[in-house]
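Narrative summary of target 7.
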Amino acid sequence: MRPLITLAVFLSVVGCSDDSANHGDEAPGRDAATRIIHDAGPRLADRGVIPPPIEPDAEIIDEADAYLTARYLQLVGEAERTLQGGQTLSVSVRYLDAYDHPVSGKIEAALMHDGQPAGLRGISGTHLSEPSEVFALDDGRATFTLEAGQTPVEVTVLIQAAHAEPVHVLVQITPPPEGRVDLRVFYAEGRYPEGAMTEVQAFLADGTCAAMGRLDSPPRIISPFDGDEIIPLTAPHQAQRVAFAHALANGRVIAKGCVEGVIVEGGAVTPVEVQLWDQALEFKGLYDVRHRLDFTDLMDADQDLSGVADVLDVFGALGGTYGQGPFPRGDGIIRLVCERTGVDPSDCEILRLFGAQIVDEMVDGLLSEQAIEVIDVLGDVHAIVADFRVYGQMSFAETVADENGMLKNNESRWHGLEFFWTQGCPDDERVNCTRRFDLLEMGFGQRSVVAAFDARLDEDEGLTLLPHTLELHVGRMVSSLIEAWLLPAILGVEGPMSYEQFLADSINCPQINEALPPFDPASGLCERAIVAPLAETLRERIAAIGGQPKLLTFEGHVTPTDFDPDLRVDHLIDGVWDISFGADEATIPEAGTFRGCRAGECQLE
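Modeled conformation, tokenized:
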């Protein structure tokens, strides 16, 4: 019986065959055996590719049953494709039976390279996207996605289903066309002048600005850089890139800029702007510093010292340091009287203009030459206090400010005093006669005038020096200056000279002793009764300038600059001090100024 059935099936197949049968989706009636054999496309074995075997069903009954269960995969599209790196490709097949009816069932795809499975990770960045197993849709269609890497490679997409010969698609991965980025690099609103940057380097990379990876190509160098340049850069097609640029001067990167998420498209030009931003200034090191302070203003604000300030003003007026013009002594006296009595400023100007010479000549006529010399000395004392010049250093401990803009554990050190003098000055302009005195040589301890301070870098890159205190005895400093130089200068002798010696020489004690009992020039009475008390009074009065050792509270602001430029701060300019005596006293704004430069690299004039 079975042979008869088989023969009947065979005759029916032959009888149903005609010339109108078509390939693929054409009308039923085509020779199924031919369709099963040929519609799968070129055999993989012809290309040396051996597909993984699919286990056949265990129930193969006979040729008729095989025909009834026959399936084939129909490729949609070309069997050979070309794909650019970075692109994707959809590969579709239809799963059909012997009558071209859609069949549902599992369809698998695999990536092959050189006749071997490429594995889940693919080859050279090229891989099949998940899933690699699908069930055919209602129309028997299944689609798989191939993602091409950037490396050129030839791969085969192998697609299999039960009872069907595998289908393969040969895919050639080619390099993507490069895209171009027109990178505008510009520098604006920075600390450096135009032309300070010797060159700019720009490039594209993968990753982020915080963590850049491989460069697309070596940096493009622009030199010289005029502050605004368009730099063309090429790169392979890839969705997200980083555009980066930095500017160099003196071998250091002084400004940087970075933009993330730059999209590079093959064959297209993408405009991108990168602004260069200044890098953090470096402070660490030692700076020579000059301070100028007006202690008369400070003492005026101190209730205990305002009287001393008045006395110093009188000294300054009589000594000629308080006034101006060709007759400074007379001008200073008129000016002082005007200020103390409230004379109208316009009237005072007239008095100073026409009366300065008269008052000046009057003082010269009333006082002896020696008295005038003493007054001139006291005038220099006023000048020293009114224009108190200190030279010293500042030390910064940290290289750059921390995340809060702070520079901590710094020191301000005073090394000595510098002032102009009148008595004995060989020049008509007292500013051309300068003296310097080292505090250590004058008996002040090495760390007696040292203050620790913290500083804060502001948004405008100005530096605020936070409040810090110095223990200072102004009177002692001034008194030391007088004995060390001013008194010897008056008498034309080598210093130092004590107040006692100066007064004894000035008063002529031997003559006084001879006139007083016991009428002996060598009795020492003048020295004991007149010179010693007077010298002690003078020393106390001068030492009282500034009172007892006081805590001076300083708070300042200065502009750090990098003129070189190399990111290292080289100058501190336009420094201003707000000062108060002690923590509870009112602060006098702008009571002093200061400036500095990095030690060993520049000179302060």
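The CA atoms of residues 279 and 546 lie 44 Å apart.
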